[in-house]
């Protein structure tokens, strides 16, 4: 009887999760991968791999964690976007999980656990979504709710339970942290999928995907140079968060407003960011701000539209052609237009400003990972000293 009531060890739990992930992968390979038709846009699932890595890097488990967490936004969005190709969602999870765990410097056992966890959630979520159906709006809505329920059970709930068993603490203590903002982030994932499939929101969604891939490149550079993911979010990050959120809001407003505000707002933001970055000597941000300035100045000089070098490329942008114009002899600042063809499998072309923005983003992320450990430790010590001084003052006041 004692054997029956003996708690299952963490190693056994982890092995069971590995087995469940492997079974889910084999089942998906038989049911979905075998009869699947080729997908014509490989850049789409590559973009979601990047977004899942960034999602986990920012919101997921930390360096020394023994348990894994699901991507809060991107994996749920991938299930919805690739609802007719669930094998792509499995491919995204199978590829992104070990990458995300590797660049955070986690142990091999955590990398395997994360891969099994993500694959299991991808298969179960896609199966639930397809089982409910999505051919009409009511079914689509119910399928989305079912998907969110599955990912909530396999995300915050399962991760909290695993952490409780590994740490030997009550489940309520760990679940309180894991469930925080879980539902709003899931709603954000559904909105991301909606933006990805909505013509007038697609340009903004594609910019998010491009930014994610560039950020992953910066993370890899930092990782290969010996950087640590924990230093990215250590105290003393040279970017104020509130102005950054405000800048994102300005860019969003610029996406949905007509000319001249569509280019005037980003142009003003680029100038302000460049001045601030130069003053504070944050050179990666200055590089990105210069790229944004180049893009917006050429748009401003050509009626608020970005010139595109090549008639065939202009036709390829489809519904987004209203934001572009074919470059010609009378194009102002033609050397700043979209003229550099991206290598396969990525579609489209880029401008010199786009290249500067990409370099600045990757440079900034890598520089954060490469910050000296002593800097973060010193900042933490200063904060602790301030806390102790304030506590001492409060204690003296209470004694008086």
Textual characterization of the structure:
There is one protein chain. The protein folds into 2 domains: 184 residues, Arp2/3 complex 21 kDa subunit ARPC3; 187 residues, no CATH class. It is an all-alpha fold and 400 residues long. Helices cover 70% and strands 2% of the residues. It has a two-stranded parallel ribbon. Helix 3 crosses helix 5 and helix 11 packs antiparallel against helix 12. Strand 1, helix 14 and strand 2 form a beta-alpha-beta unit. It starts with a helix and ends with a helix. The protein is globular. The longest helix has 31 residues.
Can you give me a brief rundown of this structure?
This protein is mainly alpha-helical and 400 residues long. The protein has 16 helices and four strands. The chain folds into two domains: 14-197, Arp2/3 complex 21 kDa subunit ARPC3, CATH 1.10.1760; 203-389, no CATH class.
List the uncertain runs: 1-5, 376-400
Distance between the termini: 60 Å
Number of domains: 2
Structural class call reads: mainly alpha
Which sequence of strands runs across the widest sheet?
A: 1-2
Strand content: under 5%
Query: From the alpha-carbon coordinates, what is the Rg to the nearest angstrom?
Result: 24 Å
Number of helices, where a helix is a run of at least 4 consecutive DSSP H or I residues: 16
């Amino acid at each position: 009887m004692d054997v029956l009531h003996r708690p299952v060890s963490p190693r056994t739990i982890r092995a069971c999760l590995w087995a469940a992930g492997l079974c889910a992968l084999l089942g998906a390979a038989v049911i979905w991968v075998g009869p699947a038709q080729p997908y014509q846009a490989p850049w789409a699932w590559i973009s979601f791999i990047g977004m899942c890595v960034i999602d986990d890097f920012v919101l997921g488990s930390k360096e020394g964690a023994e348990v894994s967490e699901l991507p809060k936004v991107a994996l749920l969005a991938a299930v919805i976007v690739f609802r007719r190709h669930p094998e792509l969602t499995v491919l995204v999870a199978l590829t992104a999980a070990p990458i995300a765990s590797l660049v955070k410097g986690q142990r091999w056992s955590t990398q395997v656990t994360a891969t099994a966890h993500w694959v299991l959630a991808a298969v179960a979520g896609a199966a639930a979504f397809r089982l409910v159906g999505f051919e009409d709006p009511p079914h689509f809505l119910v399928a989305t709710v079912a998907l969110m329920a599955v990912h909530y059970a396999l995300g915050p709930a399962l991760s909290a339970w695993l952490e409780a068993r590994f740490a030997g603490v009550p489940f309520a203590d760990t679940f309180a942290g894991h469930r925080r903002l879980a539902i709003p982030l899931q709603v954000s994932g559904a909105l991301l999928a909606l933006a990805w499939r909505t013509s007038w929101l697609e340009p903004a969604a594609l910019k998010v995907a491009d930014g994610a891939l560039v950020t992953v490149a910066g993370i890899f550079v930092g990782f290969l140079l010996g950087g640590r993911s924990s230093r990215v979010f250590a105290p003393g990050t040279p970017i104020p968060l509130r102005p950054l959120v405000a800048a994102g809001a300005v860019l969003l407003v610029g996406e949905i407003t007509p000319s001249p505000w569509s280019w005037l707002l980003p142009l003003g933001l680029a100038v302000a960011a460049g001045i601030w970055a130069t003053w504070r000597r944050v050179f990666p941000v200055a590089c990105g701000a210069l790229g944004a300035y180049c893009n917006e100045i050429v748009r401003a000089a050509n009626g608020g539209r970005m010139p595109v070098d090549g008639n065939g490329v202009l036709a390829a942008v489809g519904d987004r052609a209203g934001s572009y114009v074919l470059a010609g002899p009378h194009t102002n600042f033609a050397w700043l237009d979209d003229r550099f063809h991206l290598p396969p499998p990525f579609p489209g072309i880029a401008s010199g400003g786009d290249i500067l923005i990409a370099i600045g983003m990757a440079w900034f992320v890598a520089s954060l990972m490469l910050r000296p450990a002593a800097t973060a430790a010193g900042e933490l010590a200063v904060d602790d000293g301030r806390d102790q001084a304030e506590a001492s003052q409060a204690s003296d006041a209470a004694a008086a």
